[in-house]
Every structure is written in structure tokens, then in C-alpha cells.
Amino acid sequence: MTAAGAAVRARVRAAPSPVRPPRTLRPDRTTWPIWGFTAGLPLTFLAGLHGFWWCMPGVVFGARIIRKPTTTIPRSTFPLLVFLCWVPLGFSMLGIGNLPIFLYRWSLFAGCFTCVVWLTNTSEESVPTERVVDWMAALWVALIAFGWIAQVLPTFHSKSPLTMLLGPAGGIDYIARISNWKFADYQALGAGRIARAAAPFGAANSWGSAVGILTPFFIRSWMVGTGRRRKRAGALLLAAAAIPIITSVNRGLWISLSLAFVYFTARKALRGRFAPSVLLAIAMVGVAVAFVATPLGTIVQERLITAEDSNQSRAHIYEDAWQGALESPLAGNGAPRPTHYYKGSPPVGTHGLIWYLMFCHGFVGLALFVTWMFTELVRSGSPPTTDAWWSHLTIFICVVQIPFYGLIPHVVLLGMAVGVAHRDLERGRAAQRRAAAVRLGRLGEADSGPATVPA
Predict the structure, then answer these.
(1) In whole angstroms, what is the distance from residue 167 CA to residue 39 CA?
(2) Structural domain of 393
(3) What is the full DSSP assignment across 4-25?
């Protein structure tokens, strides 16, 4: 070893460890736009603001990005940026009265883009990644808590303070749907009825989609690189989540979590790490025992038996979405279209982000957004650190869900996940450059960033 190399290694050993910022669920002047739909969602839900808060990143972060000309836009987000410019063409198919809802939906996709750009341009010192992860995990905990409340108050439905304050405007169907208090979809299942968790979205499928997307962030926040007490609490929360997840009879949630677990296990096994495979086997045995020894097996079986009606209605919606897209293949139809298959049947262009994009924004809009999603999936698919695995898994789950979940307003969560993935990759690469410089005895020429644990 050279004298220079020995001196560098001595400086590395003597260098103080970076101070870990304290965990907090409180917002500040920088982070409040994301706080309202993550850690602060219980409060915004009580006020009835939860449905509108999803617009905040698109509006606030968008203004910040425009005011700061030095903002760097990641090259991988250019398909998404072009998509945002393409979407307004769809408004030509609508009347002026549809403008508020059209702008609301557009702002959600804008929030997806601005969350990526904002996170990649904000320093770790200003907004620690761990804090963002903790807030996403706090949203997961809130969703599970709402799932339990749904079992106690399955038929509860009330106006929120916001809708009461708005007066007649609060009675508009779309405003009421995203603002009122509703904990469950109380639906028939077999010979009885079951409370399917819905809050704060007002629909059981939206609740299930969000739980699936956020589960990797919960695991990262509570189970990875934390103390024993936090891990134990995380294990208890995971166990408590089983009841709402199963009683939601949400097949899309079950599929996305199962595929994510199998994918993660397979990737780890290819690297010679078989601990996740053991956990998968234990989980399968536990699920089998629960199905045999508890009423949960009956719930799942009845859901699968009665799924035929749901499949048929979805097939009609998908067929109409395809035909509608063929009628307007470039600009799309601008918004979902009401249907009359049966009382309360869902609109064409719902029940899957693919069908929404195809019907509302044409094949060009569909191609642009899906291209961006798969670009980010591939880009994050070689995680340089253990932490980076979990944001990649969230992106994977979103890709799994796009055929059967609309991901509105969940695209904002996708933008958060992609932004965290960009940060994780950059930190991992900085750590690798730092380690290479240490080996070569040139620490002073390397980037000085916090070291991370290799995957």
C-alpha cells in the first residue's frame, strides 16, 4: 500500500459519521405540499381537503420549478413532459363546463412530473430522503387505520366541513366524491355483506391500489436498517394490515403484492441470497393456515366465485374504451364517458390507467406515459444500495397495476417513488465513486457523499 493510500484510509476512518436528521412528521415551508397527502392526510381528511391536496405538488412545485431557471430536468422524464404538453389536446373534445375537472386531472399528472424534478433538485440536507420515506409509510399506516375503521363504521357517510362550507357547490358529484367522509364500500358478498375499506379515496379499488404502492415504503421505513423496537412495531403493523387487506376482497391488491414479493425473491435468489425465499415459503404456509383455520378463507373463496360479474362489466368497459380510442386515436376523448350497463355502472375510461390514457388522451398519450413508466422501471432496476430496492419495487407495483387500476390520484405517489429512486441511484453512484477513489488513494477528487450499504 502506498503512503498516500494509507493516509487516505486513515482520514476516512477518522472522519466523523454524518449526523442523521431526526425523524419527524411535521411539515415545513419546503415540504408542506407533500405533507398534506402523506403524513398529514388524517388532518386533511378531517377537514375534507384530502381530495384537493393531491393538486398541490403540481401547482406549488411547478411554480418553484418555473421560478428557478437552474432546475435540472432528468432526461428520463422527457416522455412525461411531452405527455403533459399533449394532454390539453383532449380538451378540444369537451365542453367548457368540463374545464375544472379536466384541469384537476391534468394537475395530478403534473404533480407526478414535478415531484420527480423537485426531489432530484432538492438537497439531502434540506429534505432528507428518510423523511420522505417515513411520510409515505405514514400514509400506509393511515390507510390501514382507515381499513379498521371501515369494519366498525361500514355504512358511515357524511359531508365534510369543506363540502358544508361550499354550500350548493359541495353537492356537485365530483366534489362530493373527493371531499366527503366515507370509510367503506359496503357490498354484498355471497350470502352476506362485507365492508371494503375505501377512505380516504371513496372507492375500495383506490384504497387497495394505494396500499399496494406504499407497502415497499412502509417496509423500508419500519423494517430496514432500524432499531429492534421499530422493527417489532413494524411487524405488528404488518400483521394488523392482514385483516383490512383480505376483507377488502381487492384482487388487484393481492396480485400486485404477490407479484412484487415473487419478483423481489427471484432477484435476490439470482444473487445468491435466499433469505427472502425462506420468508416467501413461511408466508405461503401462514396464508394457507389462515385460510383453513379462520373465516378469511371463506371470504376469499366467495370473492373469487362472485368475481364473474365484475369481470363481465370490466370487459364491457375495456371494449368500449378501445372503440372510443379508435374513434379519436390522437387527441382522445378528453374524459371518461358515462355508461348504462346497469345502475351505477362505472364510466368508460376507468378501471385501469391503460384504458384511461387510451380513451381520454389517445394512443399517443398512452405511448408517452407508458414509455416513461417503463423507462423509470428499467433505470431503477439495478439498485446500487439496499435502500434503492424499495422505491424500485413501488415502480414495479405501479406497472403491474396499470391494466386494472386507474391510479388517479395515485400517479402523484408514483412521481414520489421515481424521485426517491433517482436520489437513491445518485447516492449509490456517489458512494461507489468514493469507494473507488479511496482504493486509488484519491479521496480528494471524489464526490463527498454519505456512504451507503451495497445491495
Answers:
(1) 29
(2) 72-127+328-446
(3) HHHHHHHHHHHSPPPPPPPP--
CA distance 192 to 298: 12
Residues 6+ apart with CB under 8 A from 276: 264, 265, 268, 269
Report yes or no on 375 lying in a domain: yes
Asked if residues 187 and 309 have their Cβ atoms less than 8 Å apart, the reply is no
Cis peptide before 200 (omega within 30 of 0): yes
Q: Using an 8 Å Cβ cutoff, are 136 and 416 in contact?
A: yes
- Report d(CA 347, CA 349) in Å as an integer: 6
442: amino acid identity, one letter: R
> How many structural domains compose the chain?
1
- Burial class of residue 6 in the structure, from the number of CB atoms within 10 Å of its CB (0-12 exposed, 13-18 middle, 19+ buried): exposed
Q: For residue range 233-246, list pLDDT tens digits in order.
A: 999 999 899 889 98
Residue 3: inside a domain = no
pTM: 0.88
Question: Which positions ≥6 away from 378 have C-beta within 8 Å?
Answer: none
Q: Is residue 293 part of a domain?
A: no
Report strand pairing: 157-158 vs 181-182: antiparallel
Q: Using an 8 Å Cβ cutoff, are 184 and 198 in contact?
A: yes
CA distances 93 to 170, 324, 413, 445, Å, are 26, 12, 28, 57
Residue-wise pLDDT for 368-424, tens only, equals: 999 999 999 999 998 887 788 899 999 999 999 999 999 999 999 999 999 999 999
Work out the pLDDT band at 148, boundaries 50, 70, 90: very high
In a domain, 389, yes or no: yes
CA distances to 5, 52, 434, 441, 453 from 10, rounded to whole Å, are 9, 54, 14, 11, 20
